[in-house]
């Protein structure tokens, strides 16, 4: 969709980087590997709305609290599949995350799967989450006072195993493997390819240059499809009744001719979507939270004290997870600074004007740059500072609406939000109760981007408490 009309009025000029070239646009200073952090830096220079032109493709970024509040108005705006997300249709097809608004399978799958994220359903996942967290601690116990643990790698193992078992009753044997599961390797390759080639493939020359990379990506996509097809085939061929999980909901709807039934190809797309989105973002959130805990001993001590007081020595019941209110604030603050799904697109559904200055016609779209929104002045004088007390109840009430968006917005917001939060708080509580964690004092946070965000090269030394 065009964003042309967003910068046509004399009183609403949208700034852009200084050194713009004919044809090539704003190629000076572009970073293919870290486009989110690159755009954050440009936003710091140009303000809460700016434009980037990459080889004739125009992108408008917005992060001002007032702008995002208006973009969250579902009577004027809807989800837009920005190029980076649209490119993931190679992976997820018309799954919940990558479907266009007009595609019928989105609403069918949403209606079909929403019951899997009710409170009663969440309660049924609690046992599995505890079991997988126990496998993590068994793995880490072998490294106490020894080799540092690779945090991002282990959080990825944990969250993949959790969504595999809770959603599809399928184990990836994540903690018994020497190397990451091939599905993870293929997924990382596919996500990285999508990010690196989004801009490059916008021209005929770029598409030609990307052919070799495309061929490698086909192999990754085929492997992911094979893994998912095996998950589905194992369930379908089983003589026993399937457990009440996401996969069973989809297969039973097909068997019983439910009006929300989806075909076999879309079942694959939904499984891929949940396997990718259901673990990639949560593993990043856990990794960032552990990074900040390791850098703030006072916060770490307070979080550990809360876990000790609320959980004691017993295995935590479902209701006790939500009682870790300070741990939850640590997680929320980590997602404020580094929301692991860092941007989303919003498209005008009517002719309108954004904040009374920027005319938008039907189909015009902008990208909400979430890390920049989460550093808006409404967060105080030092928005770069890690402070879990940003999420004290009284501060939450005093802030404007729509300034915290780690799960997106509107009807297309993350369906698995409560699942992710329950899992993440449970895992953090498990780690904090069992270990003292020590980061490498020489490490400086490096954020890897593969459409999602993740600390790179971050390790911890662990000691039993």
UniProtKB/TrEMBL annotation:
Highest rank taxon of the organism: Bacteria
Pfam annotation, one family: p450
GO terms, molecular function: heme binding; iron ion binding; monooxygenase activity; oxidoreductase activity, acting on paired donors, with incorporation or reduction of molecular oxygen
Gene3D superfamilies in the record: Cytochrome P450
Stored SUPFAM superfamilies: Cytochrome P450
PROSITE patterns reported for this sequence: CYTOCHROME_P450
Binding site for heme: 414
Cofactor names: heme; FAD; FMN
Keywords recorded for this protein, A-Z: FAD, Flavoprotein, FMN, Heme, Iron, Metal-binding, Monooxygenase, NADP, Oxidoreductase, Transport
InterPro entries: Cyt_P450, Cyt_P450_CS, Cyt_P450_E_grp-I, Cyt_P450_sf, Cytochrome_P450_Monoox
Family to which the UniProt record says this protein belongs: In the N-terminal section; belongs to the cytochrome P450 family. Belongs to the cytochrome P450 family.
PANTHER family per UniProt: BIFUNCTIONAL ALBAFLAVENONE MONOOXYGENASE_TERPENE SYNTHASE, CYTOCHROME P450 FAMILY 4
Name of the protein in question: Cytochrome P450
Naturally occurring in which organism (per UniProt): Rhodococcus opacus (strain B4)
